[in-house]
Amino acid sequence: MSDPMKNLCTIWKTLFGVEPELSLTDFQEDFCADLPLPMFAENLWGGEPVAISKPYRRVVAQNQIAKNVEEMQKTPNGQVNSPDELLSEIFSKLIFSGDNCYDSINVVNSDNVFKSLNVYQSRSVHESKNVIFCTNCVGLENAAACDDSGFSQFVIRAMDSINCSRCLDVYQSGKCSNSIFLSNCYDVHECILCTNLRSKRFCIGNMQFSESAYNELRKQILAKLVFCNFKPMYKY
To answer: Does the model's pTM come out above 0.90?
Structure first.
């Protein structure tokens, strides 16, 4: 896939106007700790570890199964010596698939990806493009560390949200843009640390500011809460 760090830089610069001063590993540790990202399991048939969405024990990559699908369709006659022996034999042969990818291109370290392009270390992603560290999402483009969200662009940590753009750490919100730290907001733009607002602009902490005052405070808040020692809004 395209370089995930380059993708992160594009998203970060679009949101904040500067390049990120952290590595991809730092970003994952700081911004993704509470996300149900894919796990990785040893490949039963050899090769690289396999991305999985559940803690399966006996796993192979989807493409390995595809190459052996005819062999795996064989169903020889079974013999029953005892139920215990039968179950033991069955359990020893159970195989689950990981790295599952359907009608998608450039997918790395991800599982259950459908009709998407350029996906990195994500799971349950549908019809999305240029996403990293995302889960349970649909219709995202240029997104990082999102969960249960859809139809949004240039977002970091969109959670249970829809139709957002250029936002960071927004929860249960819709139709919001150019905002950071929102919860249960709708049609909110250029706002910070706001909850339960509708159709507002230039608010901080549910208080109204002028555009110039807002922009000045935004720089200071970004420096304190985003560019160093980031933690999700709900942890304050």
So the answer is: yes
